[in-house]
Every structure is written in C-alpha cells, then in structure tokens.
From TrEMBL:
Protein name as catalogued: DNA-binding transcriptional regulator YbjK
Residue ranges, annotated region (Disordered): 1-20
HTH tetR-type domain segment(s): 19-79
Domain of life: Bacteria
Origin organism lineage: Bacteria, Bacillati, Actinomycetota, Actinomycetes, Streptosporangiales
One MF annotation (Gene Ontology) recorded for this entry: DNA binding
Length: 193
C-alpha cells in the first residue's frame, strides 16, 4: 500500500528545512508584481510562484504589506547598487555623462520587468509614506552617486532627467536614441552652469 505523503523524501526534507524560503518568497513576490501588478498580487500567487505552502506566507510575513515592502526594499537596493557601481566606475565628467546615458538607455533599468517594478513602487509611494521612504532613500543614493562628478544642483537635475527619461522609455514604443539622451544630459549641464 502506498502512502498519501510524498514519495520523494528529499522534497519533504527540503520543505521542513528550507533556510532560503523567506528570500525565495520575496523574489517570487517581485516576479508576481511584475506580471500582475501590486493589485493582482496575493499570498496565493506568491506562494505558488515561490513553490512554498500557503501557510509559509503568514509564518514569514505579518501580512501582504510587509511582504510588499520587503520586496520593494530589495528591488530598490539592487537598483541603488547598480547605479552606484556605474557612477563609481566613471573617472571623469565625460565618462560620468556616458554612465548617465547607459543608466537611462540600458543599464539599471535593463528589462521591462525592472521598469514595471519601478512604476509599481512609484504608485505605492505616491499614496503611502512607508514606500516614499524607499523612493527617498533611492533618490538620495542616486544624487550622492552623481555628486561624485557633478555639483549638487546638477546632480539633482540629472537625477530628475534619469527618472523622466526612464518613464518615457517604459511607455514609448520606439527605442531611446543614445545620442538624444547624451544631448539632453549635455544641455542640462550647460544650463546649470
């Protein structure tokens, strides 16, 4: 007679001792948000995407808001790190301008997924101060990275340009022209002198 339990003992053992489960849930949450939006994200969808029992959701997170905040904190931190690495690699202002172009056209927001996650975070931040803290930390970090090469006012303006052009990139059906983006950065720098 066969048992109704899993016949794969390694699967049962993995489920009982799964130290990466919380992190896997957070990653799966980002995938679900990218696919369904925040409004379509539920414990059930995330649990299925993470391949964990539904009960794991309430064990690891007090509710959906905590899970969403953790997921967006992870996402924003990864963008901050990529942005910082790109700007830190620039050795002079000309390389910094090229780094800004790369950030806008293909580097930090390299996938449609990243663009969607960014816009979902912006929407939450517009309504909820807890998410605004994440976007404010992101903006502060971006400006700090830009200030390695530009004065604070120019850094603030370039940061806004990056945000605006990435929104255009997310919504435009035509690819962004690197030369046009570079021209925008250079014009902005000329007017801020």
């Amino acid at each position: 007679m066969t048992s109704t339990r899993s016949s794969d003992p390694t699967r049962v053992h993995r489920r009982r001792h799964d130290p990466d489960r919380r992190e896997r849930i957070i990653g799966a949450c980002l995938d679900v948000i990218a696919e369904r939006g925040v409004a379509g994200t539920s414990h059930r969808h995330v649990a299925a995407a993470a391949d964990v029992p539904l009960g794991s959701m309430t064990y690891h997170f007090t509710g959906m808001n905590e899970l969403l905040h953790e997921a967006f904190a992870r996402f924003s931190q990864s963008v901050i790190e990529q942005f910082d690495q790109r700007m830190a690699a620039a050795v002079d202002v000309d390389e910094a301008k090229q780094a800004v172009v790369a950030i806008i056209t293909n580097d930090v927001f390299s996938t449609q997924r990243d663009l969607v996650l960014t816009h979902e975070l912006y929407t939450l931040a517009a309504r909820d101060p807890a998410y605004r803290d994440l976007t404010n930390a992101w903006m502060r970090s971006s400006r700090t990275a830009l200030e390695r090469h530009f004065d604070p006012t120019t850094a603030r303006l370039i940061d806004a340009l990056i945000e605006g052009l990435t929104i255009h990139r997310a919504l435009d059906t035509a690819p962004q022209d690197r030369a046009v983006v570079l021209s925008a950065v250079e014009r902005l720098m000329q007017t801020s002198r």
